[in-house]
Each structure stands twice: as structure tokens, then as C-alpha cells.
Design brief:
5-stranded parallel beta sheet; binds (2R)-2,3-dihydroxypropanoic acid; 2 domains; 13 helices; Rossmann fold; 12 strands
Length: about 325
Amino acid sequence: MQKMPPKILVTRKLPSAVEARLSERYDVRLNPDDRPLNRAQLSAAMARYDALVSTVSDALDASILQAPQRRVRMIANVGVGFSNIDMNAARTANIIVSNTPDVLTEATADIALLLILASTRRTSAAEKKLRQGDWRGFSVVDDLGTSVQGKTLGIIGMGRIGRATARRAHFGLGMQVIFYNRTRLADPVKVLGFAARQVDSIDALMGTSDVVSVHVPGGGAGPLISARHIAQMKPSGYLINTARGDSIDQKALVAALVEGRIVGAGLDVYADEPKVPDALLQLDNVTLLPHMGSATAEVRVAMGMLAVDNLDGFFDGSGLVNQVF
Ligand code: DGY
């Protein structure tokens, strides 16, 4: 008797080449409308499918992962981050989880660099003025931003994307780099290709950086960058976040921006996506992007293909390329 192919639920629309590859090998349910699934649909899926291909917008919490009559044994998450998945609950339920690192490193660092430049050069406010027909022509004193050359970039989280951002900022923009990382980098010059100083705490970084860029995974019990940390920033400072919105105390950040305690921010991620606080939408001193760090056609295909590699490795027993635990 022929073996039935594993049943796979793909929670969001994927690039067509990835969906075609999935359909060749699996009994796959796609999401052509790309409508996010609600809690009830995700819970029901746990009992109907052998695996999920999920992504960062699927909140897979303990009650979903431990749904009764669970059949799902593997979750191939499309994204390097997996803070959408309660990893303790997955472990308890014996569900294997994979992610898609590396392939999105450069694209995400590009967006970090874009946000560094957009916020320090105030391009969002300037473009808005032009689009509204309020540009009066060239002025020597209007639309002034801040130069970053020779300024200090403080990187929080010197993993792959933090390093790629550091290199761009140093070699491309002439910035000096300091960084905080949970573990000590034995030889930053070897790892980065230039000298960058590692500091021992986030406190030591906030007050000495002209621009702070966040590159940590998120999903902790509380925000790693707290109101106290934000209060330590220079009044001339900028905060950039391309990682996860819950890594920063968003309320405190908004208050600092509204009250002018820091000059600006560049954000690609938010605490409760897709909600963006109204106060942020009103501000001229922030550049806001819709979580698009890895959003290039090439990278999204590569992420999808890597998720399928992980799925294949699980079901053919050859092992996962990127098992999270
Ligand atoms: C990730 O991969 O974690 C990004 O946030 C989505 O591309």
C-alpha cells in the first residue's frame, strides 16, 4: 500500500516556487488569500495536520500548541525569529521547531541602515512635506538632519544581523561601533573586520551611543530595553529597531519621542503588530516601516525554501537544517 504524504498546513501565502515545491511532496493546504488564521483555526489545525509552515504573525501559544488530540509534530517557521512560538510549550508537547536564519541577514541589515539614514536625515518628514505640496524650493536652512560620520553606533545584540549592520555602518557610513552582547566576542576585529568595543551592559551603551540599533530576538518576559534604558539615551540620540517590537518598552519610547527626550527613531517592528500606536503615527521624528526587514523577492523565496528543507529533513529522517531546540 502506498504511504500517505504528510498533511501540511501553510498558514500564510508563500512565494509560488515554494508553494509548488511543497505541493509536489506533501498533502498541502495553502492560504491563497493570505488571510491570517485566528486562534480557533490554529487550534483546530493542531489536530488535523502533521506539520505547520507558520510565520512570525502566527501567535502559537501554549493553549494552541497543547490542543487536545494534537497531531502536529513539527513547525517550520518562516523567519529567523520565533518569538511567535511558545518554545517551552512546544518542547513540552514534543513539537520540533525550525527557523530560517542566514538567508535574510543582509536584507535585514540593509533595512537597519536605511532606518539609520532615514531617521538621522529626516527623510520621512521631508518626503511627506513634498508630497503634500508644501515644499517651497531649496533652502539652506530647512530639512536639516544630523551627519553620522564619526558618530557612535551602539548595537544591542551582535548576532548575524547585528554584525552585518555594524559592518555597513562602519565601512559604509564611517561610524564607530560599540556593542552589547550576552556573550563575549573573543576577537571583535576578527569577527567584524574592524575594531569595535564590547561593553558589559545595556546601561553602558545607551548614554554613549549617538544611534542605538536593536538586534535581539524578543519574546522575553519583559522588554530588554526598558524605560530606564531609554531615559539614559543622549537627548541627541536615535533608536532603531528592526528586530522585535517587544524588545523595547514601546510606551516609554513613544513618550521619549513625544516629549523630545530623544531626537528620533526608525522602526520596522512593533509590540502588537499590526497595531501601531496613534502617537507614533502623528510624529514627524520617526520613520515607520511595516515589518519588512527581509522583504525582498529573493530573500522570501530563500526563506520559504529553507523552511521546506527543514520540513523535508524532518519527514525523511535526514535531520533539520535549522532546528531551534
Ligand atoms: C524574521 O525573520 O524573524 C523577520 O522578522 C521576518 O522576516
